[in-house]
């Protein structure tokens, strides 16, 4: 895919230079065990089944898998590593943290930091989206917990979503509830999944949907009991992998390329928009109030 080609160069350069790995105290090499390979960079664990060509990526950044700069960097590098591995055809994205898929963007990365930090953070969010939404692999989200905002975006980037059938787990793009605005590419991703009107309702209200409602709304494709999420994802994966890769990949590209190209063309402008928006005093105040409420609910 065009966007993949643009993106691959920077992450691959970092991957090959080992800069990221050195920073983490050593290269994230594959460990082999029978038909399994695994690597971990700290916040992400990847296990690959060589017999099926399916990798399971587990987010393991407690307490809530919030997407901070380190996490996003590890995520994109891990994804790139799988993308360039020709033996890997499918990716199941899930969480190793009980009851949480991902709490979305780390709010502390968007509060009280320098403009340079905001720009680096937003570039990393964009990169995560470009890589996951544009992946050539079959991607299945095994949503085993709550998944607000950026966590919902990650799930929406996948080709298929299976969620634990527990009404305590909710998913949605709730940005307006924090006093912030989902950018156009979050909106495009949601429109491509549930359509324009449902997206407008959902985004304006900043709606979080408990699992059963998320299924009705089309935000997820299937609900299964909590202890069956991984096996259901593996079963769905084998169905998806029965389709010839080239035909499926070209079809995926046809569906997603307009949205991807749109961000690729305006990447720098989108970063500038984010920085000027997030650094406003009124927005910083809204985020502070939201964080205080989160802490007070205990
Ligand atoms: C004009 C247009 C310009 C466009 C400009 C763009 C603008 C920006 C767009 C931004 C896009 C995306 C935004 C996001 O993704 S924002 C993040 C939204 N996430 C949330 O609202 C989730 C909030 N968290 C929760 O609801 C709950 O924590 C939970 C995930 C349901 C888990 O509940 P829990 O009871 O199990 O755990 P809890 O005690 O609440 O949390 C544990 C600790 O983790 C902290 N925490 C939770 N979420 C976050 C987070 N997202 N970031 C940072 N920290 C988080 C929480 O505060 C607790 O910390 P502590 O133990 O008290 O210290």
From TrEMBL:
Transmembrane segments: none annotated. InterPro entries: ClpP/crotonase-like_dom_sf, Enoyl-CoA_hyd/isom_CS, Enoyl-CoA_hydra/iso. Signal peptide: none annotated. GO terms for cellular component: mitochondrial matrix. PROSITE patterns: ENOYL_COA_HYDRATASE (PS00166). It holds the Pfam family ECH_1. GO terms for biological process: fatty acid beta-oxidation. It comes from the Eukaryota. It is an enzyme of class 5 (isomerase). Belongs to the enoyl-CoA hydratase/isomerase family. Key enzyme of fatty acid beta-oxidation. Able to isomerize both 3-cis (3Z) and 3-trans (3E) double bonds into the 2-trans (2E) form in a range of enoyl-CoA species, with a preference for (3Z)-enoyl-CoAs over (3E)-enoyl-CoAs. The catalytic efficiency of this enzyme is not affected by the fatty acyl chain length. This is Enoyl-CoA delta isomerase 1, mitochondrial. It comes from Engystomops pustulosus.
């Amino acid at each position: 895919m065009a966007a993949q080609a643009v993106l691959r160069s920077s992450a691959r350069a970092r991957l090959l230079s080992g800069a990221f790995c050195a920073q983490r105290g050593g290269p994230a090499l594959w460990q082999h065990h029978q038909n399994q390979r695994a690597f971990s960079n700290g916040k992400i664990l990847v296990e690959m089944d060589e017999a099926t060509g399916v990798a399971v990526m587990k987010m393991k950044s407690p307490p809530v898998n919030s997407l901070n700069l380190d996490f996003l960097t590890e995520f994109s590098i891990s994804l790139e590593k799988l993308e360039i591995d020709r033996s890997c055809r499918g990716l199941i994205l899930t969480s190793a943290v009980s009851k949480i898929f991902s709490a979305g963007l780390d709010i502390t990365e968007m509060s009280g930091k320098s403009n340079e930090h905001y720009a680096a953070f937003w570039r990393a969010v964009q990169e995560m989206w470009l890589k996951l939404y544009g992946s050539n692999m079959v991607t299945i989200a095994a949503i085993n917990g709550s998944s607000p905002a950026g966590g919902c975006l990650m799930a929406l980037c996948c080709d298929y979503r299976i969620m634990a059938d527990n009404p305590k787990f909710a998913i949605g793009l709730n940005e307006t509830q924090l006093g912030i605005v989902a950018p156009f590419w979050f909106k495009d991703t949601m429109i491509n999944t549930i359509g324009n009107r449902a997206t407008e309702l959902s985004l304006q209200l900043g709606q979080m949907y408990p699992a059963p409602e998320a299924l009705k709304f089309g935000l997820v494709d299937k609900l299964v009991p909590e202890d069956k999420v991984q096996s259901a994802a593996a079963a769905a994966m084998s169905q998806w992998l029965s389709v010839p890769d080239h035909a499926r990949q070209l079809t995926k590209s046809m569906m997603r390329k307009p949205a991807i190209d749109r961000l690729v063309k305006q990447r720098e402008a989108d970063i500038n928009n984010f920085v000027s928006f997030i650094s406003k005093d009124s927005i910083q105040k809204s985020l502070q109030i939201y964080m205080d409420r989160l802490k007070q609910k205990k």
